[in-house]
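Wed. Picked up where I left off yesterday with Fluoride-specific ion channel FluC 1. The coffee machine is broken again, so keeping this brief.
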Amino acid sequence: MLYLYLAVGGFCGAVGRYFLASFINRLWPGSFPLATWIINLGGCLAMGFILTYTLERLVMGPELRLGLTTGMLGAFTTFSTFSVETLHLLQGEKIPLALLYLFASLAGGLICMQTGIFLARLPLSSKALSSIITREDGEE
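Structure written out below (tokens, as returned):
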């Protein structure tokens, strides 16, 4: 069953990345690889949130968690495309842009990961908490 979770997650992540990258590239045809940058940072934010939330707050089986993180987010984000795009910038003698991309990707990824962790640990509002408790008791 684990492989099914990984396969479905991987399929969703890869297809999602393809469509989102195509959409962003139509909007931003510039030299800076914005699509990959946005996708990778979004993946870092989601990874931080999902791992923290599912390990600390939400009961979730390890197979589903692995399908969401390794499968879906692993296929959604892409280190290889980041590397190729950086190399193309360097080969095209766009060294300042390549360095900006490197720094913005690495620092941005760490910041987004930490932001996801922070968001997952925010306390639930009393209204949201009472809504969850009411649903668990069956008193809707």
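Quick read: The chain is about 80% helix and 0% strand.
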